[in-house]
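Give me the fold.
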Amino acid sequence: MASTVPAATTWPGRRRRWLFAAYAAFGVVIFVAFLIATFPYDDSISSILAPFKLKLIYQSQRISPPLGAKLEHVRLVSVANSPDQLLIESPDLTLAPTLGSLFLGRPGISVYADLFGGTAEAIMRQRSGVTALDFDLNGLSLSQSGLLRQLGATLSGKVSATGHAELRNPSIPDATGHFTLDGENVALQIVNGFPSLRLGTVTGTLTLDHGIITLDRLRAHGADLELNAAGTIQLAPDLPDSALAIHLSLKPAAIAINHFAIFLNLLPHPPASGPYLVQGRLAAPSIN
């Protein structure tokens, strides 16, 4: 006949196991909290940005539960030349260590920021001299981008993008990456005083390899025209000097033919006759 153990004799054992599990969980929480509280955010982000001659400047820092730190009034600047050049500015930015950086000693940090009226998320990891970057940009306002204004472009609308890149050193030719682009309500103002050219929905895929950006299936579909583009951009250390070699097809709508007739007449041939070759410097391209 099978014997049974009285409940009174099993309860102390169960209680000890529960207490042990509770102490262990509490210890893990304390350990992780200690790691988070003492995580060297400044050193980590500086070690990742320094090889690319970039620096993060902020006014204040506070804890951001449950994991990370929030920086306020943040500026990303290039220190390659003097004086420093402002690249990006954000009201606040949240940093959090990756699991690999917490437990394996592998430099890595995740970033979340309000940027150009939208949001930007990125994870940066370092291993064997390579900085791996995964990013997700959502709803960025093109009109707030200082870089586009430097290139002489007056754009409006929202753009989102996702991608991955591997940066082996500050030299652009050693970088690789793959990106997808998705824009909405995009418009381009060619000359002040003229109506904006409504590009509408813009989608495309871009690949970066050995300093060359390859445009694949870049398309725009808007009220004024349909556009298809494919080709390459050879990046230069000074971005406006980058070299273009892009084949561009245009199909203007009737309303655009009326509004932009003066510009269409400046093209080397009517849009219906075939694609154009856009080449030369990014800041001053020629169309053939």
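The chain has a mean pLDDT of 78.
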